[in-house]
Structure formats: structure tokens, C-alpha cells
Design brief:
179 residues; Nucleotide Exchange Factor Grpe, Chain A, domain 2; alpha+beta; 55% helix; 3 helices; Hemagglutinin Ectodomain, Chain B; elongated; single chain; 3-stranded mixed beta sheet
């Protein structure tokens, strides 16, 4: 409430007290009380909206900060998966490979609990919102160079892929997007 509003309200109250007509004074004071109540309700509603909005902004900021941090960890997972994909055949039963496999599985589980999900690629229609094509021509993903990930439904890191013609067993019901 501004100083002018306070002065006006005080003048109305003083006039109502000084006025000889008691009924008119009561009406003016009731109108003033109703005005105060309406202002209070409006202020309370504005505060509730402000509080809700700041909580939503804080939650969004937290998600964004987590996404930035998690994006920094994804190359480590890529390296673990490349290591496991290139284990020499004579080493597949070693305890070292078993340990690295367990670490990679634990890392993937941790990311999934945080809302990080891998993007399906090979055989699916090319979608520039989730795929980054580095070669080929066509409407479907035929090879994946680097796995992409989503974070709470948003693309955290696009999958780096090669596109080509649709395979015979491509997922049905999805329209291909043009590159």
C-alpha cells in the first residue's frame, strides 16, 4: 500500500467518524474494510503464486545443474563400454574384465536412477532432435558412433549416427524425418 492510499483511507475513516449520519459512516467503514480485505486476499494470492513459481524455478535449475554434471560423466561411460567391446577373446573370462563389467553396470544403473536413459538409434527413423548424422544418406539410422542420452525426457546428448535406407525390420508406426 502506498502512502497516498494510507492517507486516503485515513481521510475516509476520519470523515466517517466526524459525519453526523451514523449509517453513512458505517457504510463507508464497511467499504473500507472490504477494500482492505480484498487487498489482503490479492496479496496473499500473489505471495502463494510467487512461492510456487520460485520453487518451480529452483527445481528446474537443479535439473539443469544435474544435467550439466552428468553430461561430463558420459565420456567415462563411453570409455568403459569401448573397453568392454574391445576385450581380447582370450581375456573374456578374466577377473579384471568381470570387474570392469560390474563397474560399467553400476554406472549405468546410477545414471538411470537419476533419469538418464539411452536413446534408441539403429533401425529407427532419423530425428534431428535426438540424432546427429555424420554420414550417409537416407531416412533411418543404420549405425551408431556414439550413444545419445535423454535426461527427464530432454535430449542431454544427441546420438552420433550414420543414416541410410530403412531396414526391412524398421519399427512400424514412425514416420521418417528428412535429414
Amino acid at each position: 500500500m502506498t502512502q497516498n492510499d494510507e492517507l486516503r483511507d485515513e481521510a475516509v475513516a476520519t470523515e466517517a467518524r466526524e459525519d453526523g449520519d451514523g449509517e453513512d459512516a458505517v457504510t463507508k467503514l464497511q467499504a473500507l474494510a472490504t477494500d482492505y480485505e480484498n487487498r489482503w486476499k490479492r496479496s496473499a494470492a500473489e505471495f502463494i503464486n510467487y512461492k510456487r513459481r520460485t520453487e518451480q524455478e529452483r527445481a528446474e535449475l537443479f535439473k539443469t545443474a544435474n544435467g550439466t554434471l552428468i553430461r561430463e560423466f558420459l565420456p567415462v561411460l563411453d570409455d568403459l563400454e569401448r573397453t568392454l567391446a574391445n576385450v581380447p577373446p582370450d581375456q573374456t573370462d578374466s577377473k579384471w574384465v568381470e570387474g570392469v563389467t560390474l563397474v560399467a553396470r553400476k554406472f549405468r544403473t546410477l545414471l538411470e536412477r537419476q533419469g538418464i536413459m539411452p536413446i534408441d538409434t539403429v533401425g529407427h527413423p532419423f530425428d534431428p532432435a535426438i540424432h546427429e548424422a555424420v554420414g550417409g544418406s537416407g531416412t533411418h539410422v543404420v549405425e551408431e558412433y556414439q550413444r545419445g542420452y535423454r535426461f527427464h525426457g530432454r535430449t542431454l546428448r544427441p546420438a552420433i549416427v550414420i543414416v541410410g535406407d530403412a531396414p526391412a525390420d524398421a519399427p512400424k508406426g514412425q514416420e521418417p524425418l528428412q535429414a
